[in-house]
Structure formats: structure tokens, C-alpha cells
Amino acid sequence: MVNILQRIGVIEILDNAQKVCTAWRAIDMDLAMWRVFYMENYLGSSGITVYRKMFKQAVDKSQGKLAELTMVGFCDYELLQFVADRSDRL
Question: 7-22: per-residue pLDDT in tens?
Fold first, then answer.
């Protein structure tokens, strides 16, 4: 299961993993799943809005337990403040 989740990435996990089956939904709801994540904007300027929305979803799923974060190609002060307000472990 971990091998599959590593291959599909955070975008697919946010959008679809919880819809696959009850086991995947349980994993999606597990806070440990959202302690560390990496997001990179592969869509250029056209993808910034989409990535910002997904990023906020992922931070909210961490419920303050986010411990490590990498954002490439869409980071700004507003998003950093969003994370700081919701993640006491960073």
C-alpha cells in the first residue's frame, strides 16, 4: 500500500485515494499520512491556483501535525502564514 501511495503523489491522494476503498480512506484520514509532504508545481503559472488550493487541503488534513514541508513553484508569504497558523511543529 505504501509503495502505491508513494507512486501516485499528493495530488492524486488528495483528489482520489479516499474514493478507492475503505482501507485507502482510513489511510487518507490518518494524521501520520500528512506529517511530511512535498508538492511541486509542474503546471507553471496556470497551475498556481490549483496547487495553492490542494496545498491548503493537505495542511488542513495534517490537523497541526505537519512536521516537514517542501513547496516548489508556488510558495508565497500568504501560504507560509497559512502553514504557520496551523502547524505548531514547524
Answer: 777 777 777 777 778 8
